[in-house]
Design a protein that fits this description.
This protein is 41% helix and 20% strand. It is of the alpha/beta class and 129 residues long. The protein has a single domain, classed as 3-Layer(aba) Sandwich (Rossmann fold), CATH 3.40.50.2300. Strands 2-1-3-4-5 form a five-stranded parallel beta sheet, sandwiched between helices. The model has no long low-confidence stretch (mean pLDDT 94). Bound molecules: magnesium ion.
């Protein structure tokens, strides 16, 4: 099953780095979509089948926390797995995200960390197959 992914980050460079890392994971990546803030991310979720969302925290217009809250409030997006990739260092803020069911990856990251986190969130076997 190809995994359709939405990348939400206000940095074009960071989105490109995440995309490149995704292609290095060896996972079966399907469609990839990009959005530069939470509001655009929610719009993209409305019109597309997304299997996993990768989201930054600090963004203009709508930050990652608010986007996650809005996803959880909508039955159609409440169960979409979420991986937060951020430089955020505040443990209380990270705890709040984990309580919402999101996984967290600290910047800088490696393709291996992204792969392992995605497998965990999507319930995929850990073998390279
Ligand atoms: Mg940012």
């Amino acid at each position: 099953m190809a995994i359709n992914i939405l990348i939400v980050d206000d940095s074009t460079v960071m989105r490109a780095m995440i995309l490149k890392s995704l292609r290095m994971t060896g996972l079966d990546i399907g469609e990839t979509h990009q959005a530069s803030n939470g509001e655009e991310g929610l719009d993209t979720l409305e019109g597309n089948w997304i299997d996993l969302v990768i989201v930054d925290i600090n963004m203009p217009v709508m930050n990652g926390e608010e986007m996650i809250d809005r996803m959880k409030q909508n039955p159609e997006t409440a169960d979409v797995p979420i991986v937060v990739i951020s430089t955020e260092g505040s443990e209380s803020r990270l705890d709040k995200l984990r309580q919402k069911g999101a996984a967290f990856i600290h910047k800088p990251f490696t393709p291996e960390i992204i792969r392992d986190t995605m497998r965990k969130m999507l319930g995929l076997a850990s073998e390279d197959a």
